[in-house]
Amino acid sequence: MSQKIFIAGQWREGRGDMTESRYPVDGSLNVQFRAASLEDVDEAIEAADAAWRGEWSERLPHQRAEVLYRVSRLIEEQLDELAELQSRDNGKPLAETRALVASAAGTARYVAAACETLEGELPTQRSPEFMTLSTWEPLGVIAAITPWNSPIASEMQKIAPALAGGNAVILKPAEATPLAALKLAELFEQAGLPAGLLSVLPGRGRVIGEAIVKHPKVRKISFTGGTTTGRHLAHIAADKLIGASLELGGKSPTIVCEDADIEQAVKGICYGIFSSGGQACIAGSRLFVHRSQYETVLARLVKITQGLRVGDPRTPGTHMGPLISTAHRDSVAAYVDQARAEGARILTGGCAPEDPALSKGSYYLPTIIDGLPADSRVCQEEIFGPVLVVLPYENEADLLAQANDSVFGLAAGIWTKDYRNAFKLARKLEVGTVWINTYKKFSISTPFGGYKESGLGREKGRLGIQAYMQQKSLYLGLEHTPMGWSD
Ligand code: NAD
């Protein structure tokens, strides 16, 4: 049976090109189906525009919230199935995809609660002639465009606040990972979301994604993905004079201070870079170690990294599955080969695993490199794979000069026993999130987003819904006499 897509509240075959998703473990076909066409885009957006203008935006907040609470419960009930689907699409270990599914359920629940308690404002009243108040109104149709690395979690981070704000959503998932997004649409339908408010349109970014964001009835772009695509979408948003929230790439520094608990730091660093096979925007991919601890940290790091289990994502205890595709694995390998040619030391990894059982999958070993300057290509560009570059630093000034020498500014990690020092250092790092003695931990109530070329805007937190709304100010005259000309 061919996979249907969700257009304007109906499940049917897309009218676009054939598309497919493959299992990165062995390259086998998960599903092949027809993607959305340009006509499907039009139809979905027209229906979305009618749907948010209908009773949805008039519903009381707790009634909109109820749909999100139901979705959250449905996700939890089907956690294993959703985790399996996502792992089939992108090869992540099941333990990780389970956590991502649980995070999607948590997001829906949190946003539902925030939606019920969202308030307007009564600005300070300064005039006896009138009073003012300010309400939050929906924007309209939102284009949500997502990458392949954490689909269900990043999709819910867009859909839930947009719907809570009274909008409609057109979701275009990444080419490689359509399955979880389509399943999510099924759950929203089961939860009673009115038809047309959500469409899921798989297809090529340059064709279908672009047609969605350029459509005149789309009033905001909410994008997670690479910086090059993000910049392109920002130009489109500028032309249309609409908002764009952009969650983009990173090359995040992790810092080991002189006084750090080395054992704790090293385990955190390994998790920070090698979980998800390094295919995470927040991967701690540049490591700065105080010169006095450099060799000790490296020796321990290499030892722990060599103990990581690379293999089948379904096997309990697997730390790293395959990368998303062989093309991506080759791009990661090319970065490492270039570093090798430039004289880097490859301290561990630097190739695909030799185990014949893994030969069909797009696997690559966790890799640690040092010996290159901070301005070399592997130290500057986002590799988006299991590659850690290590650099020594002498003092705080040297550290900040190197750590902030990046076009990116998504996140950073600091390992130290001195919280006063950590606090001061954190304030000087040009990044949107700093983890101190922990890494890659998330709270839905804490805003997330990048500095510099890592993005624009923030997701999550209580203000997350307002990112999908606009303020309207009302003036209420208080006088009974006819208005005079003001002077
Ligand atoms: P990508 O930019 O290639 O694609 C992301 C999405 O954009 C896909 O759905 C794609 O089809 C679509 N797209 C591509 N071109 C388009 C166009 N012209 N118009 C509209 N849509 C278009 O990124 P990717 O390779 O899927 O994901 C990896 C990137 O995502 C990395 O750079 C990573 O750092 C970033 N990322 C960022 C965050 C964050 O929160 N900051 C989270 C996850 C991933």
Describe the structure.
With 487 residues, this protein is of the alpha/beta class. The mean pLDDT is 96. The strands form six sheets. It has a seven-stranded mixed sheet, sandwiched between helices. It has a six-stranded mixed sheet with strand order 8-7-6-9-10-20, sandwiched between helices. The chain has 14 helices and 21 strands. The chain has two domains: 5-248 and 454-473, Aldehyde Dehydrogenase, Chain A, domain 1, CATH 3.40.605; 253-436, 3-Layer(aba) Sandwich (Aldehyde Dehydrogenase, Chain A, domain 2). The chain has helices at residues 38-56, 61-77, 79-90, 94-116, 151-164, 179-190, 205-214, 227-240, 262-274, 294-306, 326-341, 377-380, 396-403, 419-428, and strands spanning 5-7, 10-12, 18-22, 29-34, 130-138, 141-145, 168-172, 198-200, 218-224, 243-247, 253-256, 286-290, 345-348, 367-370, 387-393, 408-409, 411-415, 433-436, 451-452, 455-456, 469-477. α2 packs across α6, α3 (79-90) crosses α4 (94-116) and α9 crosses α10 (294-306). The site of nicotinamide-adenine-dinucleotide (NAD) has 31 residues, from α7 and α8.
Give the strand content: 15-25%
| Average pLDDT | 96
The CATH top-level class label of the largest domain: Alpha Beta
The helix content is 25-40%
**Sheet with the most strands?**
7 strands, mixed
Hetero groups: nicotinamide-adenine-dinucleotide
The termini sit apart by 73 Å
CATH architecture of the largest domain: 3-Layer(aba) Sandwich
